[in-house]
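Hello Y.,

Per our agreement to keep a running log of every chain we model this quarter, I'm adding this entry. I've kept the format consistent with earlier entries: sequence first, then predicted structure.
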Amino acid sequence: MKILDRYILTTYLKTFLSVFIILMMIFVLQTIWLFIKELAGKDLDVVVILKFLLYYSPKLIPLVLPLTILLSSIMVFGNFAENYEFAAMKSTGISLQRAMAGLSVFIVILGIVTFFFSNNVIPWGEYNSYNLRKNIAKLKPAMVIAEGQFNEVGTINIKVEKKTGDKGQYLHDVIIHKKANSGLGNYTTITAKNGELIGQENSDILKLILKDGYYYDDTPPKKSKERRRRPFTKSAFDVYTINTDLSQLNDVDLDDKNVEGKYNMLNVSDLNYTIDSLALERDEDYQKLSKNIYNRYSIKNLELSLKPTTDTVFKGNILELYGNDKRLQIAELAINSSASTKQILVNNQKSFKTKATWLNKHVIALHEKLSLGFACVILFFVGAPLGALIRKGGLGLPMIIAILLFLTYHFIGIFAKNSAKDGTFSPILATWFSTIVMFPLGVFLTRRATADKGLFEFDHILIPLKKIFKFKTGSEDFADGFNHDFSDFKRYKEDKLLSIIKDPTAYNYHESGKIEALYTLEERNLDLQAIRQKGIQIDETFETSKHIVNQVNIYSKIALVFNITGIVLLVLFFILRNNKMPDLATICIQLSVISLLVYLVYYIAQQFNIIAFNKHLKQKSNQYNILFTILGFIIYPLAHVFFKYQTKADLSTNAIQHLN
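Predicted structure for the entry above:
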């Protein structure tokens, strides 16, 4: 391995491991918070809790690993670009692809390892965590009673509207269904306004004291004559006590593993076998249903009364072949058969939908194991060139960009999979959909970083628009023999930048380089007053112009944020509504309207500042500017770039006149 590859790999691994550990700790803490209700109050020792976290941790890898690769790539390559290490590499003839080559091999190997991990370790963790959770839930059934839903405790199903007390022992608005001794049916119902759970730590008996309630019993008698009378028992009580034996429930082996076969507990070979079995079972169900419907029409029985004739063509009504009695019988049979067939189809539709959802979940689980490794590779080729383009390392801007990209990737996958479970979207395509969406972005970013271009360039859009709307800039003629590329200014020392402001042509730069040199000095924490003290003459006209442009840029950025936020929330509204999430959809549409209203306010404020800037420069507004202002409100992301470009060009013209 060459020194450069070893240096890049070592740097990347340090960042990768640090980010992975931090993110893993965050997600583990989130897991504890998620399952705190199941773990608290069960007298579990530390070993059991750690075992639960160990079993659940592999399930977090599909979330943590892609985000770690994306964030680490942006941080490392952004740090290389920020410290001009890429510039040094390029000066020796080493391209970005060559710098990424050694690390790409590591990412591909990591993707392959990820497949084996998801195929073996994740099912193992899912299998153990599920069984451990099930066993923990049995330890103290009194703690399992949740408000607003039925909970099975021993031989009763109990529902309470509210629990109070330091241990939740006081119950309010209690409804209980008792199981019959035979185990078939719940014929006894008990209601009470209040109740109290009483139990001792070492006792297997759970005592439930109910107060102010009613007892209903409609157990069918054994004798048929008595059953015809439909007896029903109702009684009221002030205090009623129920004792439930929990000896079997409390005798729980936490290491017992009797649940298996769920789709997320299977590896690739098991999933393939299960998918084939479910597909065959579905086809058999379709065939049985078709034969059942065909036989219900009794067509063969009706054909027995016909006397077949040969060499004839019948063109009349088929009912004319039968007598009146048969016609009535056929009509009644058709009506009854149609009604019953419709009901059968409705009932089977629900059953088929449930089985199709179960099959689709297995298909999704299978392809998730295959797509995870590819996603890691794709996200690397998104993060690495993106870091080289934004030229920022650390945990600031890279963290924000990585989280936004990962949330986009993650939510695209979630919505696609949710749509695929009920069959509205292909389960195979849904699993790969987020990776497919990220693939063109990775190709685009890699090509732009390789060509050493900016993240986005709008010249092919802006130049035609400039010609259409006749906007003018102070440096429109690029064929003047002067250099218009000011990218080297960041490397120049302070004295040279001051000299460029005084006379840019002496260094073969166009006069618009004055404002670029001034911006570079301000990035080094030099304000206008400090620059004046360095011998640069800056009159009040330019200072006022620059202040107005800063206001325009501030309003423009805020407007852009709220514009994008409003549009994204509007899109989420339609997605969530189609995915049967009406509450979240309502929240999104409300926030979208608020964001777009705030965007309107800041857009208007920005336009007033642009008008004030033009008046200050004594420029006449072009007649087409009004049209572009209206269009800019509709397509603001493009207008934002254009307005920023135009005000910067006008400020450059002002700088040529007022900076010396």
